[in-house]
Amino acid sequence: MAEEEKIELDEKPSKKKGLPMIVILLLVAAISGGGGIAVYKFILAPKGKAKTETAAPAAEEKKGEEAAKTEGGAETPPPAGEVKQEGESAPATTTEGQAQVAVLSLKEFIVNLNDPIGRRYLKTEIKLELNMKAAAAKIQGDELILSRLRDIIFLILSSKSYEDLRSITGKLTLKEEIVAKSNEVLSPVFGKNIVSNCYFTDFVVQ
Fold first, then answer.
1. What is the C-alpha to C-alpha distance for residues 18 and 112, in angstroms, rounded to an integer?
2. DSSP 167
3. Domains in the chain and their CATH numbers?
4. 110: exposed, middle or buried (C-beta count within 10 Å: 0-12, 13-18, 19+)?
5. Are 131 and 103 contacting, i.e. CB atoms less than 8 angstroms apart?
6. Residue 196 is inside which H or E element, if any?
């Protein structure tokens, strides 16, 4: 019995010593066989560093693919929310509508108002907004057209009384009448209504 116990005591230390030796031998064999890098990354290296080194090649590979697409003439995708259609061109910024607007300045009007006493008169300066730029020069250069236009405006002004013009509503009504009657004179010449607005730059009733 004493011999058996001695043998058991001798075997236990050998088992404890044998396990570390196997691990060391496996590591040495892996390193000498070319697997040192893998062993270091997955066994010996810190976890954070291994993740960083693993992600770096993937990022470089992705950059390489994007660069290859750019060099190959690949079209840059449109921003989110935009859909590019074939044959569609970018809208051109233009001021064509503003370029067609012109202002016709008329000489000062001094007229007696339709007042029962007959002592009130109106002094005003009028500018007409035209939606045809070439029309302003043509009207100014044609004495007949200009005379007809001034005549119709003169008749409208002289038909008003002091009470008609003292309020804002009365003045706005007068502007509408001048625009309408001016178009009646000018539309036969230009083929359409070209007067879009009327402005009083001076307006005095006495």
1. 129
2. S
3. 2-71 (no CATH), 98-205 (3.30.479.30)
4. exposed
5. no
6. strand 195-205
Tokens representing 55 are 């992600």
The whole-angstrom separation of Cα 50 and Cα 54 is 6
Please, are residues 151 and 114 in contact by the beta-carbon 8 Å criterion?
no
DSSP state of 191: S
What pLDDT shows up at residue 201?
Answer: 95
* Contacts of residue 159, Cβ cutoff 8 Å, sequence gap at least 6: 114
The DSSP output letter for 91 is P
Distance of alpha carbon 159 from alpha carbon 115, whole angstroms: 9
The DSSP annotation for 118-145 comes to S--EEEEEEEEEES-HHHHHHHHH-HHH
Per the CB < 8 A criterion, the answer to whether 134 and 179 are in contact is no
Q: Give pLDDT tens digits for 31-74.
A: 555 555 554 555 555 555 444 455 555 556 666 666 555 555 54
- Check residue 153 and give its pLDDT: 97
DSSP for residue 206: -
| 148 Cβ contact partners less than 8 Å away, ≥ 6 residues apart | 185
Residue owning tokens 């031998």: 25
Q: Of 180, 178, 185, 183, whose CA–CA distance to 200 is shortest?
A: 178
Closest to 157 measured CA to CA, from 119, 201, 117, 125:
125
Bridge partners, 128 (sequence order): 104, 198
Q: What is the Cβ-side half-sphere exposure of residue 72, based on CA atoms within 13 angstroms?
A: 7
